User: What shape does this take?
Amino acid sequence: MKTHHVRTHRSDEGLGRDGQLAWQLAALAVDPVELDADVVDMVVNRVIDNAAVAAASLARKPVVSARSQALSHAVSIGGEGATVFGADAARRTSPEWAAWANGVAVRELDFHDTFLAKEYSHPGDNIPPIVAVAQHLASARGLTGRDLVRGIATGYEIQIDLAKGISLHEHKIDHVAHLGPSAAAGIGTLLGLDQETIFQAIGQALHTTTATRQSRKGEISTWKAHAPAFAGKMAVEAVDRAMRGETSPVPIYEGEDGVIAWLLGGPEASYEVPLPEAGEAKRAILDSYTKEHSAEYQAQAWIDLARKLHDQYPILLDDPENVESIVLETSHHTHYVIGSGANDPQKYDPDASRETLDHSIPYIFAVALQDGSWHHADSYSPERAHRPDTVELWRKISTVEDAEWTRRYHSLDIEEKAFGGKVVIKLRDGAEIVDEIAVADAHPLGARPFGREHYVQKFRTLAEWALEPTEIERFLELAQRLPELGPDELGALTITAAPGALVGAEIPTGLF
Assistant: This one.
């Protein structure tokens, strides 16, 4: 790997293309280096993973809304259109709207893959826009499954490398600001575009996808699921404009009125972004990890620890009065984003939205401890959140930052990188229960690392309510052949709901 130094430059410094981060990202996108076999396998896993969580969310209101928006638009004339999760595969729409609808479906339950470093990310959000463009132009450009896999690998590489080098949340910028550039670059790799075109698309995508992180603060709304879908949609549109010869603000990161100077660390700030050397394999996807539980990634290990304590200590379940306090000693990010350090009263409110509760580690730990399990829908139901004994226990749970857990959270050494912490439970009788966990059970270094069979089972479990058995098997067979698919097969890389499965979903109306 090489390290690219990024800082603000005055206009009179005349920063050339080679010195600009967007140009270096574009160079990575055009590098023809072959993918390693384990990277290809992981791309397949994540395509299955995305479809699994999308299937589970097909009837949820934000997904129904986004799908109805997408299906209100006709196929654009430049290709054959792209498919929308849940709809019949023959019903296509314009690729930017397919990216929108499928992006919302993938993100709605906060249940797909993650990478956490200086910034946090869900790199699987790259897949919907890249697939949408591949489907739209498959016949016109002769695109294959191999092209799609390469594009997805680029998207993962760039988003993860940016997350390793540049913190956004520190400056209250939403993490999808790394997604716009990565998705645009991934589409560039897919289509075999030249470096200049991809460079301009990256700049436009970044410029149009920077927003504050209020979408993940306080009363968290349904926009949380829409934010990455919007970034994917903007990436598709940015590539379209760049292909037509339209240019972007330059230098987008380093300019004296650019992203670093005014949205991130300021004119004196600098960043070090790790990037593969020319000819070096793109392997960043292997640094990411998926979720076994539908909750913020920092909650994954805590759910597993709570399940363990549920089985080991019945005294914790008999009566909340037995517990005096529960303190989770954890990383800075966990404490301040999903813990009591956020100072969000909504994180302790039984009437809070689902989006808020999945960003409340006190709620999540209380429910997982009492139930000994976690369910993507039942664990967030209003009935579950209002249970009196849960509310009593929930409000006894707090978090504190521990310097060592923060250091491990930010470590780029996967052998020590950690997302858990230590729990200290004080009982009314004076006894203490102390335990800790570093990574989730499903993490590559966890108790039960996810492999292909787990991704397949996750898909079967989450899709069984909405898809016919034949559709489940059809998709799994196709997805596992992804690298060998021809142009005529990419359009089938979608899921169609069973007859009647979505009948109860009220379709909203709007402008379109």
